Each structure stands twice: as C-alpha cells, then as structure tokens.
Amino acid sequence: MERQTATRVSRGFTLVELMITVAIIGVLALLAVVGYARWTRSAKTAEATAMLGAMKSAEETYRAETLRYLDVSGGAIDTYYPTSAPNDQRVVWDPAGCAGTAICDRFRQLNVQAESQVYYRYSIIAGAADGSIKTVDGKTFPAANDPWFIAKARGDLNANGTFGYFWTSSWDSIVWSKNADE
What ranges do the domains of the chain cover? Predict the structure, then answer.
C-alpha cells in the first residue's frame, strides 16, 4: 500500500493584487466623498428655496391685508439679513433679537421664521405699480402693472468667494438660481 503525502500549498496575495484592491477602495472612497459633499450642498440649498417660499407666502399675506408688498430691504436688493457677508457658517435668524433696525423690524413684521440658523442671507425689495420694467441682478422682470416684490438669497456654501444666488418674485412662482452649488 502506497502512502500518499499531502502537500500543502499556501498561497497569499501578490503585491499587484493588493495594489489593485487598494486602488479600487481609493476610487470608491473618492466617489463617496464627492457624493456626500454634493448631498450636503443640496441640503443647504434647500434652506434657500424653503425660506424664499416662506417669504413669498408672507408677502402675499401682507398684500392681502394692506394691498401692497413690504419693502424689507429699503429698496436695496443687496441689503441682507441676518448679516451682510455670507460664508460657510450658519448664523442665527432672530429678527426679534435685533429689534430697532429697519430690516429686522420689517422681517419681524412679515413674521418670516427660520427653523434654525441659516447659511444664506436674505433680502426683499418691493414697490408700487408704476408700469416700469424691473431689472435686478441681470434678470429682467415684466412691467410692474401691479404691486411687486423680489426676494433674494445669497450664500457661499464652500467659502471659496463664489456666491450662489436664488430669487423669487411676485410675477410668478418660480425660484431661479445662479451658481446654486456654491
């Protein structure tokens, strides 16, 4: 009877196989980081559209009561609340806390509330029906044959100095954007 000897062959990973595995993991990690960054910016831009929607609703309520829209920013579309210079940090939205300043008092009068701190800075201009065509930030609006308002959000979500903008107006229900992911 012949005896068979079992030979064990132990085989590990080659350096090439390990390098390919590490490269695949690196690519997957990069895709995850880019996707997560895009998702967080998208969540932050949702704040701007929600706040502009709240401002539009508040302005329409104000108009139903007074037959005009409230000019919150004193006619200057680049006069913002809560602060003038946006960055990637959130700031407190508390119009009651800064009572006595015109823009705070007007936002309080509109009763526009934020659920928490905000990334964007907001402004609203309004006027009477004067038949003129309005141009704001390069966007031309129809002739003002009725009272009108334009609300704007400005933000810099990644602190790179490039601002993202959102606008809405009394002329329609659209929210426009420029550089939304900035």
Answer: 47-178
pLDDT per residue over 69-123, tens digit each?
999 999 999 999 998 778 888 899 988 888 788 898 999 999 998 877 999 999 9
Q: Label residues 77-101 b or e (16+ Cβ within 10 Å = b).
A: bebbbbeeebeeeebebebeeeeee
Three-state secondary structure call for residue 25: helix
Query: For residues 9 and 176, what is the distance between their CA atoms, to the nearest angstrom?
Result: 67
Tell me, yes or no, if the pTM score tops 0.85: no
**Spatial distance between the Cα atoms of 46 and 163, rounded to a whole number of angstroms:** 16
Assess contact for 152 and 170: CB atoms under 8 A: no
| Cα distance between residue 15 and residue 74, in whole Å | 68
Q: Name the pLDDT band for 37 (thresholds 50, 70, 90).
A: confident
Side chain identity at 153, as an amino acid letter?
A
112-115: long-range contacts (C-beta < 8 A, 24 or more apart)? 112/51, 112/54, 112/55, 112/58, 113/54, 114/47, 114/51
